[in-house]
Design goal:
The structure holds 2 protein chains of 2 kinds.
Chain A: E1 3-9, H1 28-34, H2 41-55, E2 62-67, H3 73-78, E3 84-86, H4 98-110, E4 115-120, H5 122-132, E5 138-142, H6 156-167, E6 176-184, H7 186-190, E7 196-205, H8 222-239, E8 244-247, H9 251-260, E9 270-273, E10 279-282, H10 287-295, E11 300-304, E12 312-314, H11 323-329, E13 334-337, H12 340-344, E14 351-353, H13 358-364, E15 366-373, E16 376-384
Parallel strand pairs in A: 1-2, 1-4, 2-3, 4-5, 8-11, 11-13, 12-14, 13-15, 14-16
Antiparallel strand pairs in A: 6-7, 8-9, 9-10, 15-16
Helix pairs in contact in A: 2-6, 4-5, 8-9, 10-11
Chain B: H1 43-48, H2 69-81, H3 104-110, H4 113-116, H5 128-145, E1 149-151, H6 157-174, E2 183-187, H7 193-200, E3 204-208, H8 218-224, E4 229-235, H9 247-256, E5 260-265, E6 284-288, E7 305-309, E8 321-325, E9 330-334, H10 351-388, E10 407-410, H11 412-418, H12 422-429, E11 448-451, H13 459-478, H14 480-485, H15 510-516, E12 517-519, E13 522-523
Classes of the chains: A alpha/beta, B alpha/beta.
Chain lengths: 385, 525
Amino acid sequence: MAESIGIIVNPIAGMGGRVGLKGTDGDALRLAVERGVAPRSTARAAESLRALCELATADVPFTLYAGRGPLGEDAARDAGIDPVVVDGATRLGGPTTADDTVAVARAMKERGVRLLLFAGGDGTARDVCRAVGEDCLALGIPAGVKIHSAVYASSPKAAGRVAADLLSGRIPRSAEKLAEVMDIDEDAYRSGRLNARLYGYLCVPYERGRVQNLKSGSAASDAASQAEAAQGAAVLVESEPDTLFLVGAGTTTRALLAALGIEGTLLGVDAVQGGTHPQILATDMGEREILTILDGHPTAKIVVTPIGGQGFVFGRGNQQFSPEVIRRVGRENIALLASPAKITALRGAPLLVDTGDESLDAALEGYYRIITGPGRSIVYGVKQG
Amino acid sequence: MKMGKRDFNKKYRNYHQARWDEPIIFELTQPGERGILLPEAEPEVEAAGLPELGAMVRKNAPKLPEMSQMRVLKHYMHLSQENIGADETVDIGQGTCTMKYNPKINDRMAGLPGFADIHPRQSESTVQGALELMYQTEQMLKSISGMDRFCMHPGGGAQAVLTIATVVRDWVDAQGLTDKKDEIITTIFSHPANPACAAVKGFKLITIYPDKNGRPDLEAMKAAVNERTAAVFITNPEDIGIYNSDIKEFTKLVHDAGGLCSYDQANANALLGITRAREADFDLCFFNIHKTFASPHGCGGPGCGVMGVREHLVKYLPAPLVGYDEKKDRYFLDYDSPSKTTRIKDFYGVLPAIVRGYSWMRNLGPDWLREVSRVAVLNNNYVFKKIMAMRGVGAPYAEGEFRMEQVRYSLQKLKEETGIGVAEFINRMFDYGMHLWSSHEPWIVPEPFTVEPTESYSKAELDEYLAVLEKVIDECYKTPDVVRHAPERAAIHHTDHDIQDDLKRAAITWRAYNKKYTGYFEPKA
């Protein structure tokens, strides 16, 4: 059976940016239209599809599924492709909404697309995540105003290339990883506050995994090096029976909980009592609950992994670690863990903190030992975001 | 492909590699075919049997291929023609490996009966020449590095690092600091053997990343060093070709914390007669005779990693070292060292490689050894300037600065503009008879490749290599499909690398192959 690719376009993504509206949630879209902004996501998606057609080898035919009209079909036709139109919803006409994205994404998952390409921003990624979860390989074409999520290719062209490489087998099926879907509260952002939340994970193709060379052998898979980092942190948790560990969000910290043989949450802060038989005390805690549990535990450590592509340690996706929580626990009791690949991906940029409290951010600056495995660490710098 | 007269105005060759589809040697066996017919044993010998060997006598003959001499010759000739290397091409793309000319005269020296036909268990009195050569080699290495003693046992660079880690381990244990000094610091651009060997010896590892200028981050180093620091294992210049002139600050930090400093000089081609490990306050270092000192690499001959230490660590070196008794004017193998139980490798070292290294150094002398490094650095900066002018290529860190003996480049821009990354790029280089290597893991530099021109190649040869590089870059932009389908003119096309990671399919011995396959790459059901 021929492979298939799905394309979904959020036609209004990116319209707020040009007029300084920071997104198109709520009323902002109406304002953007009033200010005379033309949509650009269809053009970005078409650029991506053109790259896909150019690079896909002729002997690997594929079917392109597209959302109807502005939801993908227009972009496909712009790129000279005749797509199979997928209707997610029965309603036609009128402005498109997040529900359209969700419905079309679900329909494409059901059709078993090899890769779901979606053009938009953080909000679009959230909608796709809501629709397909971790069940379907997906990749974003950057077209939105806000891209805090790590599920986007570096450019529309790059997204097309990855799709072509997948079809031709240049990226093996095993080369995929879970990447963060983040979004910020647009109303808060427009009024100058940045409040980013981690909404979930999408399964994205991992291009680098393929490339290897004989002299150095193959690189460890993302999952394997993440598991190693988790093992390293597990040694710490097991060696301190009197310490309360506040475990932050992320797939690496989830791997830590798995290594400890306990269940917690992927997106929340969980409290774990250390020791050889670690116990989970609370899950998915808010700031208040964390402060309360700290009252009963004089010795506590925060265990976090940098979130997303930009390397935020605090202030993105883990606001539960409020300035007060961090001060109470103390800088010396912050344990960082990450796979070396996550550090390498920073390309020399420092890890970042943005707690909303400048003096705390300044105090958190400096070098930390990031646990990368049992008995292994990287010394790396943290700066104010 | 059109064949015809060579166009001498063209900067690159109309190359095509031989393709013999050569079977594995075991598949060429013909029962009863022989290379040499040995005479029958005399009746008396036959009658006496082999009583002394007892249980060691084979019950079954070894399953070696049965072949005539001529067929053996052709087999290996075919394999050599399907290969690529320093003896046939401009082999400067295998950066970090120092693919210089290995003078053939030195093979003749290594083949002299006094070196080639001796046995490690022979009486010292009968191998004085070989021992003297090893002793003299050590004296030269001491001058080059400033170290006080050398152990020549290791069979390669990684084993030399293992020897260093062993010495550090023994030094820590001897002071009763086993539980107190348990960390070794290394850098991400040092060879991966450094962290690997430290881990093998039970140390915890702390890795330092580069700063913006490509030097190991000194501030991170300050944060990493503490009373638990047993040692730093570091390279300088690192693989990216940038010299860290703050190196003494690194060694001072570690010494102040009571640790040792080890200098990975596997590639010392920029340093001969210019800087020494001693002046940078290192306690240990090693050289690869098969790189800097012009003995061929593992595939062309055995490797040899010679490892040196300062006086206070001599007692931790594996025995035997080669000694000289002035009174008797005799050379001897000194097994009577305090660490005589430490073993890295059998006997005393890889003699053929040591002979080649000795011959090379004696041939050049101190002044020309320095000239080797000067020319290697000059050649590299010539190539650096030319490559940096090419489309789609960059070299991260230390913009505007010269490099030492090699450079790690990046094809990131080319990849963004054409979709072709270094893995595909390399395949096309083979179509012009050239090789290009990427980088050790992890790929800190995106889409990396590493070029090390050494001192051996003429400007014309460097220009030929550059012309090929430029040609392939041009193809990436104009005819990317050609690059994607490459190599077309090499002995082997695309290979399935994933097989290496699949234990069900990987076979590195004939025995394993027979277990897993019925014939030529047909898996067993």
